[in-house]
Design goal:
68% helix; mainly alpha; Arp2/3 complex 21 kDa subunit ARPC3; transport
Length: 183
């Protein structure tokens, strides 16, 4: 792995942590708040590609496990990784991988609508389809209740999917995916 790739992964882990500084929006009816951090997950996949996107989330999850307050609300530590948010946090790793893989596949003919679609499928639907059932199991509530509660995340997540696609298209020329595609 090149130093440049490690730097990109570290930068995106830091970006996701910075997005965690934006105050969460607690919903009251589910124990997982609305955060801006999924925007960073979608950006990591879209901009960095599969391998570096996954690496950036591995670094981020390690920072959480070490107890650093990198999650929204200044949370961190092993307790968070087994609490109601655990499914969402670990789904970010999977989402960044799938978003990155798809971005690499479409890169030569990338269009903003394609990136939005990829973000909606993997950054919104997949994250909620993994996170909500895990949250329901941890909180001992029915899975359907968790999935219905997760519907509250959809409007904000759809906006984040569009923002991630727009930013990626604006920075397309400096993306590591562009470097690979140009070779």
């Amino acid at each position: 792995m090149k130093t440049k790739e490690l730097v990109y992964a570290a930068l995106f882990a830091a970006l996701i942590a910075v997005l965690g500084m934006i105050p969460p929006l607690p919903l009251g009816f589910i124990p997982v708040p609305v955060t801006a951090q999924t925007l960073g997950v979608m950006l990591a996949g879209c901009f960095l590609g599969r391998r570096m996107g996954i690496l950036s989330l591995v670094v981020f999850i390690i920072l959480i496990a070490l107890g650093l307050p990198v999650l929204t609300g200044g949370r961190g530590g092993l307790a968070v990784l087994i609490g109601p948010s655990a499914g969402y946090i670990f789904s970010w790793l999977v989402a960044a991988g799938f978003i990155g893989w798809c971005s690499e596949k479409i890169w030569r003919r990338v269009r903003i609508w394609k990136l939005i679609a990829v973000n909606l499928i993997f950054g919104v639907l997949l994250v909620n389809l993994i996170g909500a059932p895990v949250m329901a199991l941890i909180t001992d509530t029915p899975v359907w209740t968790g999935l219905i509660g997760a519907l509250a995340f959809l409007p904000g997540d759809m906006i984040k999917a569009v923002i991630a696609a727009v930013i990626t298209m604006q920075l397309k020329e400096i993306s590591p995916i562009e470097e690979k595609a140009g070779m």
